[in-house]
Amino acid sequence: MTAPPSPARPARGPWPQLRAVLVLLHVIAVVLGALPAPSGGMSRAAWRDPTVQDEFDAWRGKLAALGWSMSPEAFEEGLWTLGSELMAVRSRALRPFKHYYRYAGTTQSWRMFVAPHRYPARLFIDAREDGVWFNIFEEGAPGPDWRQSQLEQDRFRSALFRYSWPNYSRSYGQFSRWVAKEVAIDYPEADAVRLRWFKYKTLSPEDAGRGLEPEGEFIYIKTLPTVRGEPRASQAAPAPAAAPTPQVQP
């Protein structure tokens, strides 16, 4: 018995080859955008943070062990020059893909962290009534819990992390004004609000095991009058400026 003839294959045309090229370009665009880069960390003010300075000291020590000794100033200046040149090359490499990133939603704003954040900052918010200050929010604490479900939501925590760095002072100011409006609604007797960050060094495992409390100081203290007579602001607080996060782990 004769087998039936195989059905004729449809003409393939140029689409498979074109599709392969498009997939390759997409992979190249995403990989280039995801490569490690200092980005938001290219700030002299951010480099003065003790977390960053500790990392510099650690790397200088490693290089010194290999016979490359240099002063802290020379090491930092060399890193700044290298980082600036790297960012310039990266900018030129990504320029052909910038419209693709925007319209396809493939911007790579997150990269791998390069170091633990040994000197984090924790947000405190206080309100004032009849001349007396009282705390209404402490980040990471079970109470008091003003707007805790909102301020400690996963995506919002990323914004709070930015506000405690000096190169996000403008965004921190916008956030502070939003807090003043919201506190005026939830605490109608309050005439002022205060935001401050408790900056401290993380404990060693041994000290944490002994139940010790970290020592630190309050920084970036802002005191604002509460704002009355305005409708409730959106439940979404102002987002930070569109810039990458400094490359340390929150």
- Average pLDDT works out at 84
* Series of secondary-structure elements, N-terminal to C-terminal: HHHHHEEHHHEHE
> pLDDT under 50 segments (min length 5)?
231-236, 240-250
Total beta strands: 4
Strand content: 5-15%
Give me the Rg, rounded: 26 Å
Question: What is the chains' assembly state?
Answer: single chain
Q: Distance N terminus to C terminus?
A: 74 Å
Strand count, sense and closure of the main sheet?
4 strands, antiparallel
Percent in helix: 40-55%
* Helical/strand content category: alpha+beta
Q: What would the principal axes of the Cα set say about the shape?
A: extended
Number of domains: 2
The strand line-up of the biggest sheet is: 2-1-3-4
Summed up, the helix count is 9
Can you give a write-up of this model?
The protein is α+β, with helices and mostly antiparallel strands. It folds into 2 domains: 15-104, no CATH class; 121-225, no CATH class. It has 9 helices and 4 strands; from the N terminus they run αααααββαααβαβ. It has a 4-stranded antiparallel β-sheet with strand order 2-1-3-4, with helices on one face. Strand 1 (121-129) and strand 2 form a beta hairpin.
List the helices and strands and how they pair.
Blueprint: H1 15-34, H2 44-47, H3 50-65, H4 72-94, H5 98-104, E1 121-129, E2 132-138, H6 148-151, H7 154-163, H8 169-186, E3 192-200, H9 205-209, E4 216-225
Antiparallel strand pairs: 1-2, 1-3, 3-4
